[in-house]
Amino acid sequence: MKPNLAFAISGGEPQFLEKSRHEYTNEDKKKANLDNVARDILYKTLDKNMFSKIKTCATAKEIWEKLTQICEGNDETKENKLTVAQQNYESIKMKDGETMTEFDERFSAVVIELTSLGKEYSNRELALKVMRSLPREWDVKAMAMRESKDLNKMELHDLFGNLNAYEFELETRAEAAPSTSQPTKALAATTTEQCSQSTSKTADQLSDEVMSLFVKKFGKYLRRSYNPSTPYNNFHKSDKVNTDLNCYNCGRPWHFAADCNRPKKEDRSRDDKRTDDRYRRDDKKECEESDFRLVIN
């Protein structure tokens, strides 16, 4: 570029005119070649939508300035993007089933976005944020790293490298655990089954013993309650029967009329009446026969 002598001064700023190519020096040719290389690199990295927005730019510098304006926006846009990025940073947590490598990619993307927007964090702040974002299963590892490591000097990639190594160790132990714990599980199942069978047998035996004892006690109670020959002294205090209570049927104590094995009182009365009538008939017959014999004599 060379000064435009016709319009050397315009608003206090110098004006330049583009040199013709035959006027290029070796230095100008070198700069023009580098500009072509830079534009070619930028063109190859852009999609069709973005390329349509910068295709009118003549130099690589113009392309870069246009891209910066499109991506970063004005000051208000930058402030909004920074607010959203900080919210993502504060709320980021390691998800269930997510590997440490996947969490590393998500966390690093948020940090890079914040850095591009002018917000940077120290190594200690980043390390503490990562540890707070881990699940509860990682508390022991996080506490050990806090006590043994200098977080001010630990880079983010070193932190995730340490966590990846610990995750690999946990996975290795988890894969080896089923083969070693299988006999234990089988033994526990066998023990549980044996205990269940033993408990069942014990319960059955106890039930039989209780029933046998109940039958014995009940039989003894019946013998004491309904056997008139049982001595008075053999009764338990709670089994004593009032001696004033006698059987209404036979008049004997120690049982009730419903349990009396003697004939009913009414039946005996009828039998006695029948016996008396039979005796009367016999006496009358004997008297008649005696009178008849007297008359004959």
From TrEMBL:
Q: Which domain of life is it from?
A: Eukaryota
A Pfam family that the UniProt record links to this protein:
Retrotran_gag_2
The parts of the chain that form a coiled coil are none
Question: What's in the keyword line of the UniProt record?
Answer: Metal-binding, Zinc, Zinc-finger
Location of the CCHC-type domain: 247-260
Please give the PANTHER family that the UniProt record associates with this protein.
OS04G0629600 PROTEIN
**Protein name (database record):** CCHC-type domain-containing protein
According to its UniProt entry, this protein's organism is Dorcoceras hygrometricum
